[in-house]
């Protein structure tokens, strides 16, 4: 049986001496929310880039729903760290950008984008230019653009990394809500442990470069969750502590090897 | 309120400035051979345009030359920029030659162009378009290079082909930079045309300037310089207005 994502022994080398990801294996099933955490430069984004079809040379196997990843696969939607909205397009035109590239009919895509914008709390802002929106609102538009694609698998590369703590929690709750109602599979990359634990079903902890999997921890917190309330939940804090220890050991071990 | 006050204070300043000039001229403080006088200048322009009506034709030559230079220079520049975009290796190969051409003070080519294209409009357009060509070319290239890597990555994951990337990313990204290049290009076209008219020509404001200067007609020289400044300003302002309409998102 294959999953939505099947990675086995994935190894990516940027050059003879630089190995970004080392024998990375991961299987994800439908509607799973999996986070990858690790120190910066550990190859988290590289894993996403392989799945998005942006990196084509690697060792090992990579499959999405049984097929090799290719750029432009309509089953995959990628959300970047920065909002990357096009400044010359209104919020609505930005939200429908992906559908436009994928050749969806104008009336259909406008309708779908407007629906998504209202779901992310931006009804009434359809015609706003990006420069008039706050950082949080811009990232909401980016969320709308990602979900608008109706892709099965969402790859998210630290989408809330640049936001302030308050806005971040709001958007994390929004993401969980969309993930539930739209029924998607999410692979979420972050360096924020607390974010990973709060959102995910599983947290994959990676070592510093070359990125290897240190642990695959199941997060058995009940759903639906509220990220805001979780912050003081003892079970959450316990899990956070466990993962933090693994994370810390990984960093120390590698530091030890180098010296 | 503040806008009308601004206009009022500028008006007041101008009245004061020209009055002092005129009075200094009347009492003999300023030599008429070097400075002319505001009333003399006004008289010259009035006669030139509305009594003898000889300046219209000269102005027509200069403006036609400017516009034509601008259209030729910027069209060629945009075509070359597009070719460079499609074949980046060609751009790298031709870079040293373009740098040399661009570094050369192209008004120095005017004598050569006079020989090649004659005293008429041809040589003026050659100088004008060679000036606007480079400024538009470099702004178009700089504009197209400034595409955000994030936008490219995003579009590639969406499956955008190179045509979509050009029309949906590269072109809109380049427009603001391109526009400032076009605005400069228009002014440079006029500079080239006037410059070569000053050197040798049969018609045009530049030719008139050089003729009036040789006759020590300072009212005429000053009047035409003022006229050119006004035209330059109108050209820049209308480009800016067009730009603001097209780039509302900025």
Give a nutshell description of this structure.
The complex is a heterodimer of chains A (259) and B (250). Chain A is of the alpha/beta class.
Tag the structure with descriptive keywords.
heterodimer; A: 259 residues; alpha/beta; Rossmann fold; 2 domains; six-stranded mixed sheet; 9 strands; 39% helix; globular; B: 250 residues; mainly alpha; MetI-like fold; 11 helices
Secondary-structure blueprint of this entry?
The complex is a heterodimer of chains A (259) and B (250).
Chain A: E1 5-13, E2 19-28, E3 33-37, H1 44-51, E4 59-64, E5 76-79, H2 91-95, H3 97-101, H4 106-119, H5 135-148, E6 153-157, H6 165-182, E7 185-190, H7 193-199, E8 202-206, E9 213-218, H8 227-230, H9 234-258
Parallel strand pairs in A: 3-7, 3-8, 5-6, 6-7
Antiparallel strand pairs in A: 1-2, 1-4, 8-9
Helix pairs in contact in A: 4-5, 5-6, 7-9
Chain B: H1 2-26, H2 32-35, H3 38-51, H4 55-86, H5 88-103, H6 110-117, H7 121-145, H8 149-157, H9 162-199, H10 205-214, H11 218-246
Helix pairs in contact in B: 3-11, 4-5, 4-7, 4-9, 6-7, 7-9, 9-10, 9-11, 10-11
**What strand line-up does the widest sheet of chain A have?**
5-6-7-3-8-9
CATH architecture of chain B: Orthogonal Bundle
Sequence stretches where pLDDT stays below 50 over 5 or more residues of chain A: none
Q: What integer is the average pLDDT of chain A?
A: 90
Question: Could you state the CATH homologous superfamily of the largest domain in chain A?
Answer: P-loop containing nucleotide triphosphate hydrolases
| H-E string of chain A | EEEHEEHHHHEHEHEEHH
CATH class of chain B: Mainly Alpha
Number of helices of chain A: 9
Q: What shape does the CA trace of chain B take?
A: globular
Task: Count up the domains of chain A.
Answer: 2
Helix percentage range of chain B = over 70%
Q: What gyration radius of chain A follows from the Cα positions, in whole Å?
A: 18 Å
CATH topology of chain B: MetI-like fold
Per CATH, the class of the largest domain in chain A reads Alpha Beta
End-to-end Cα distance of chain B: 27 Å
């Amino acid at each position: 049986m294959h999953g939505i994502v099947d990675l086995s022994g994935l190894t990516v080398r940027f050059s003879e001496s630089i190995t970004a990801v080392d024998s990375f294996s991961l299987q994800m099933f439908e509607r799973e929310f999996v986070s990858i955490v690790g120190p910066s430069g550990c190859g988290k984004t590289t894993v996403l880039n392989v799945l998005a079809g942006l990196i084509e040379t690697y060792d090992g196997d990579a499959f999405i729903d049984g097929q090799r990843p290719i750029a432009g696969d309509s089953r995959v939607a990628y959300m970047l760290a920065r909002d990357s909205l096009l400044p010359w397009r209104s919020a609505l035109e930005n939200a429908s950008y992906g559908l436009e590239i994928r050749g969806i009919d104008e009336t259909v895509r406008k309708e779908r984008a407007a629906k998504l914008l209202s779901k992310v709390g931006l009804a009434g802002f359809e015609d706003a230019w990006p420069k008039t929106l706050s950082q949080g609102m811009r990232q909401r538009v980016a969320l709308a653009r990602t979900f608008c694609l109706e892709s099965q698998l969402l790859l998210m590369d630290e989408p809330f990394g640049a936001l302030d703590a308050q806005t971040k929690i709001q958007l994390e709750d929004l993401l969980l809500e969309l993930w539930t109602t739209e029924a998607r599979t999410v692979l979420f990359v972050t360096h924020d442990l607390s974010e990973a634990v709060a959102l995910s079903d599983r947290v994959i902890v990676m070592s510093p470069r070359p990125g290897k999997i240190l642990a695959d921890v199941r997060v058995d917190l009940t759903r639906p969750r509220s990220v805001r309330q979780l912050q003081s939940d003892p079970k959450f804090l316990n899990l956070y502590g466990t993962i933090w220890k693994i994370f810390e050991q990984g960093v120390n071990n590698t530091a030890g090897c180098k010296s | 309120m503040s806008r009308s006050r601004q206009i009022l204070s500028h008006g007041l300043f101008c009245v004061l400035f020209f009055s002092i000039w005129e009075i200094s001229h009347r009492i003999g403080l300023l030599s008429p051979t070097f400075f002319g006088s505001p009333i003399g200048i006004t008289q010259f322009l009035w006669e030139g345009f509305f009594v003898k009506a000889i300046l219209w034709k000269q102005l027509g030559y200069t403006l036609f030359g400017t516009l034509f230079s601008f259209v030729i220079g910027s069209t060629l520049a945009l075509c070359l920029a597009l070719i460079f975009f499609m074949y980046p290796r060609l751009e790298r190969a031709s870079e040293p030659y373009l740098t040399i051409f661009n570094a050369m003070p192209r008004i120095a080519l005017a004598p050569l162009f006079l020989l090649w294209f004659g005293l008429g409009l041809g040589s003026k357009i050659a100088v004008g378009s060679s000036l606007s060509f480079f400024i538009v070319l470099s702004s178009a290239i700089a504009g197209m290079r400034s595409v955000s890597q994030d936008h490219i990555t995003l579009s590639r994951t969406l499956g955008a082909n190179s045509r979509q990337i050009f029309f949906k990313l590269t072109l809109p990204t380049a427009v603001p930079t391109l526009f400032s290049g076009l605005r400069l290009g228009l002014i440079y076209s006029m500079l080239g045309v006037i410059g070569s008219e000053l050197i040798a020509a049969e018609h045009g404001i530049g030719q008139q300037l050089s003729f009036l200067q040789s006759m020590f007609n300072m009212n005429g020289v000053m009047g035409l310089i003022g006229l050119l400044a006004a035209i330059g300003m109108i050209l820049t302002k209308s480009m800016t207005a067009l730009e603001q309409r097209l780039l509302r998102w900025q």
